[in-house]
Amino acid sequence: MQRSQDKFGFMLQGQSGAARLGSISTPRGAIRTPAFMPVGTVATVKALYPEQVATSGADILLGNTYHLMLRPGAERVHRLGGLHSFMRWDKPILTDSGGFQVMSLSKIRKITEEGVAFQSHLDGSRHMLSPERSIEIQCLLGADIQMQFDECIELPAERSEIERAMELSLRWAERSRLAFEHHVEDGLATRGQALFGIVQGGTDAVLRRRSAEALVAMDFPGYAVGGLAVGEGHEAMLATLDGVLPFLPAGKPRYLMGVGTPEDLIEAVRRGVDMFDCVMPTRNGRHGLAFTWSGRVNLRNAKHAEDLSPLDPQSTCPGARDYSRAYLHHLVRSGELLGSMILSWVNTCFYQELMAAMRGAIADGRFDAWADEVKPHLAAKA
Amino acid sequence: MQRSQDKFGFMLQGQSGAARLGSISTPRGAIRTPAFMPVGTVATVKALYPEQVATSGADILLGNTYHLMLRPGAERVHRLGGLHSFMRWDKPILTDSGGFQVMSLSKIRKITEEGVAFQSHLDGSRHMLSPERSIEIQCLLGADIQMQFDECIELPAERSEIERAMELSLRWAERSRLAFEHHVEDGLATRGQALFGIVQGGTDAVLRRRSAEALVAMDFPGYAVGGLAVGEGHEAMLATLDGVLPFLPAGKPRYLMGVGTPEDLIEAVRRGVDMFDCVMPTRNGRHGLAFTWSGRVNLRNAKHAEDLSPLDPQSTCPGARDYSRAYLHHLVRSGELLGSMILSWVNTCFYQELMAAMRGAIADGRFDAWADEVKPHLAAKA
Predict the structure, then answer these.
(1) Where would you tag: which of A335, A339, A354, B98 has the fewest CB atoms within 10 A of its CB?
(2) ipTM for the complex shown
(3) Contact between chains at A330 and B43 (C-beta distance less than 8 A)
């Protein structure tokens, strides 16, 4: 008989308005929600040592199936002992399905009922992703949370095209689910791992509801909202969330994919989202932008050139406490790797501080008051 | 009256053949010799946190006057409290004079008796470096060991041209010395800092001897051999060293600038050199090459793709112990920053391990035997 900690689970621990405090349990440890997952696209959170990611407070990180299947390859990672030991990260990992990045990165795609045929953006080699292959790859990598294979289309698009892709994604959801169950049976996966469904449907409330209800009928252990943060804007994203979340079960985690700014996260948590991932902290860090409790700091700005103050003397991150803005300005202006390293670290820590503060505000039953108080500061240019 | 630890000094502690064990004393701490100085060109040892440089065992690092005068600027660094606090390095720093890099990097130079007029490689702005300005910059930065301003010419060159530049460098040596003394008197420098002379003269033994003898007559607290490692080759470099070192006083440190490979360092130490600097550990690290006791490891090589062994399980460097070659191969092939970070760290640690091993072999009186034993391993492709 399996012990309970060997099974994937979610427990809702508190609520403040619609904002939810919870915990996802996995054999590799608990994930405190709301949770932000740093993005480790090709088995590294860019410019951070794995120890820095762990001490930032992150309970889980994200890997990209599309990138990893091309290099180093899923079978190779499996032979090497799985993604966790490969990249020295023993806490949970979520992998996406590859669907989104096939669309955004690869050349020459052909979408059929079976799946997507595409050419690698690295070397032009030909590959096929189907629901079955995507799940097999995610199992080979050893992902604790896996995502159904879906079709992500570019917006804006015709409603008929959005509907076609959403319906196809539902059929792929069922095939993904069957593939995952198959691998639980053949031993490539366990009940400690989980597969999430992904709600699609663009910004159309009717399509989104239909997608959500069909996925819920398939009874996934968690649900993602996909196809957002692709240029539709903050308000349209929130309106779409408002139309979807009521149709997702309260007892399962909800993951908003690819989002976002600190303000995006706060508004999504306010509506009941539990999980996020985004390249923003690391990508912005590599471009000289720091997130702080006083707002965004563009270290390229000349006003920092002789500022001996640190980014944030109260930060949990040594990178924000120990270096002067003057030095960071110099590193960024000089294009030095240490600038990317420190700022990616600072931002990764800040995002975790933000999630911890949100969890605290929910636990205290004052999320709305907290959110209204901090949002103007976070949005400022500091 | 000044305390002795406030004064710059050098003590020879042992010898094995011509190889020397010693210690340079400065108010910022001792420098164990033979010493290797990691290069922190623009106030950062590329891709390393300052804590990693310190724990590598480095007692001193090098900063580049040419780069720092252009960005962030010597007066700015001085206003910010000096180079040490700016870059968070409290052990000694040596700065070069800018002479070499004016030649190799700047556009449109005009050399006169007064100095070198040049345009910045960054923005084309016009600048002047003279012995007086070079020393002023080095004092503003707060360098513990400063270098005389010299003219570095490209080799091969006519003997008359080499002689002209060497003679000019001697006149600049005297002006550098007077400028440094001036700043000790006006308080911009202290007796805890030191100015080294630089022997020039290409690969011509007669010119080198004349340069060395003239500098020794000026009584510098240390002497560098400059103008080597510019393509003349390992044997010509060693032959030149053989022609210079007998004319340098035993009681002063000897610094071979810009050198080199592990084998270069061993052969130079064997001949009596005490100090080195080189970009090789960090530059090669950024290009996927690791130095180990078993030889050079090119991590781009496909043979590492599924090798779970670390670079060196016995290393002092966690980067060499904790990551598999397979993972490093993947990072290097993917152009990931973490690959540059880990390998620059590994190489910086390895160079310090190498210096520590040389110091141990000298202390044991068996440098030649040690060198002959390890050199073939270091030169291997592993």
Answers:
(1) A335
(2) 0.97
(3) yes
